[in-house]
Known about the structure:
The chain has helices spanning 3-21, 30-35, 42-53, 56-68, 74-95, 105-110, 113-146, 151-197, 202-212, 231-247, 250-257, 262-297, 308-316, 321-356, 363-386, 394-418, 424-444, 452-467. The chain is mainly α and 477 residues long. Helix 10 packs across helix 16. Helix content is 76%, strand content 0%.
Amino acid sequence: MHTVDLAVIVLYLIGITIFGAQFKSSQKTLKDYFLGGRNTPWWAIAFSIVSAETSTLTVIGTPAISFGGNLGFLQVVAGYLLARVVISTLFLPHYFRGEMFTAYELMQRRFGPRIRKLTAGSFLVLRAMAEGVRVFAISIVVSIILGTGEVSSIILIVCLTLFYTFEGGMTAVIWTDVVQMFLYVAGALLSLFVILGKIDGGWDHVAAVASAADKFRIFDFGLDFTKAYTFWGGFFGGCFLTTASHGTEQLMVQRLLAAKNERESRLALFSSWAVICFQFTLFLIIGLILYVYYGDTKLPLPAKLDRIYPQFIWDNLPPGVAGLTIAAILAAAMSNLSAALNALASTTIMDFLKPMAKIHRSEEQYLRLAKWATVGWGVVLFLIGLVAKKVDSVLEAGLSIASIVYGALLGVFLLGILTKRVGEVAAMCGMTVGLLLMLYIKFATPIAWTWYVMIGSSATVITGYAASFIVREKENV
């Protein structure tokens, strides 16, 4: 056990928790707690979007993808840019009409209260399941550090994250995201140069070996629905995936709503893509370098490729550097976890508890309930994380879980934004068919996860629009 590294990790955990808790005094209303008072600068929101889009899954899962394959994942990242064009054109103008706290208020405005609850409930299930996998991903890191049972360490990470999220709300989430994003990117850059320095011949040797193994290949124009990383599945699948995640899921929409106005929200959205592109490229290159290093040294591979990057860091990087890099991985985990906790709490309060309340409550009472909803979801995510230990690739598991529900969510939002004749019942029919179809495709077909959102959203839109000719409803626009 590395004393210096452990000291660095402990100091980081204490420091980020204290920093996040400093925003407690600014939390006076639900607007403060869930939207940061809508006075956060666009660049901070951009970095927060990146941090929310990133997680331990990205940091440990992306190098494993290129280690075992090539750079084909960048085809998905290219689709992320097209998605931002769609979101800024179709979704943002609707979100900035009036004051919204959640994405699902738009569904009530367009259709009615039932579909608001259906979409909000789908988000709660989706985010809880996907975040549970991410909580488990923390155990991969802490088990390497401690070498024993990791449950107590997961409890520690969850509790520390929960503490500053409970106290500081969305303001704490955004500003700790900014700090943590710089930390894990710096840690990744540092580890890249250290790993590269261990290879005889440096980058020239890495490039030669990786080229011979076809590791630099990005594009695959074959139309194979069972392969995740083809141009068509990656580009269009990435577009649909990000349009759903950033345009309909509260985890991301909450950040867009926290901007001062629509212009700054759009600026934050597009700026975040440049950072995301750099970030995924960085982690994929690390995977290629590790591939060459393990090939040269003939070192035995870990049982799961997801362990390859954190294992190498802990075993090979100099004292202090290893601790900083592991702290960076934990930073990504805490950043995403805090975002999920606040988003889950905001949806619980604003889409369920407040609209269904039979008695009048003051703003202070709702603020107190919001904080305890955050605690409740912290417990739920921890429990889901404990039962998520049988996944192979944590990155692909998280993305495929999300993609099952994203299709139906995106489809019903598109029905609301692009059509006028579709009513609430027809939209609910479409969403139900889209969700059932995706469950079938996930568990009964070999279709790759990158196609899930496109298929699910198309089925939802087609079914909902067709149902509108059968079910006559009053338009609610």
